Amino acid sequence: MLTPIQFDSVSDIYDYYVTSELDIPFFMKETEGFTREILELMCGTGRVSIPLLQANRKLVCVDYSRGMLDSFRKKIEGKNYPVELIKADVTTLNLGRTFECILLPFHSFSEILTPELQQRALAMIAKHLEPNGIFVCTLQNPAMKFKAADGVTKTLGKFPMEGGKTLVVSYMNEPASDGNVITGFQQYEIFDSSNALIEKRRLEINFMPVGKTEFEKMVQQAGMEVEALYGDYSYSRFVERESVFMIYRLKKG
Fold first, then answer.
1. Is the pTM of this model over 0.85?
2. What is the tens place of the pLDDT at every residue in 188-246?
3. Average per-residue pLDDT for the chain
4. Contact partners, residue 56, CB within 8 Å, separation at least 6
5. What residue spans define the domains of the chain?
6. Are 252 and 132 spatial neighbours (Cβ–Cβ below 8 Å)?
7. Which of 24, 88, 208, 227 has its CA 20 to 30 A from that of 245?
8. Fold of the domain built from segment(s) 145-207
9. What is the CATH T-level fold of the domain 7-141+209-252, as seen in this structure?
10. CA neighbor of 156 nearest in space, from 167, 140, 165, 146
11. 7-141+209-252 and 145-207 share one CATH topology?
């Protein structure tokens, strides 16, 4: 049985190697005009959240990893940002309130590993969305994701750490035997200032990318409708065999 990614095991080093700001301007624009709390799901260590908070957005941020939320909390300590951090699983979410805007950044929906759980997650999201509310959901395009999952171990990069240490991250992705899931690992090697290896970790990775037709069926079953679909964070048209991403703006009818 496939297990969700155990981010607790790398939450203390996650921010060294996940530094992308590619989607920040997009989420800034998508959240313009919302004066009440915005719900961000699978928020991680606040990569998207903190720039939004700095731009005076009010957030409720949810993640299933206590370690990631602890890292998030340390980063905003003493900042007095209008944010609430909640440890919860999106498939069983029950906050007892609704929101006019919900975000699910960084293509994290594919970390939900069965169609049944994905459908349940969308139902829970719709439950927390006000009528006519907006849900922005970002996904990897399966056609491109599976094409890149070639079973070859590659180096993601070398990243400086405190005290002259260096983090080297490598990864491998390949299709599972059923053809619906991408499985693999990320490996982390930490070297000291003299380039001696002092620590090594390995994180098992599992994704279930969902295609356009399947996702839109699930969206409809959850009581939402597609308002827009983009192929990147610059609002380009989605092209199934070319676009890396599927970026949806959904609306609750």
1. yes
2. 999 999 999 999 999 999 999 999 999 999 999 999 999 999 999 999 999 999 999 99
3. 97
4. none
5. 7-141+209-252, 145-207
6. yes
7. 88
8. N-terminal domain of TfIIb (2.20.25)
9. Rossmann fold (3.40.50)
10. 167
11. no
* Tokens, residue 240: 């199934």
Give the residue carrying structure tokens 């069983």.
92
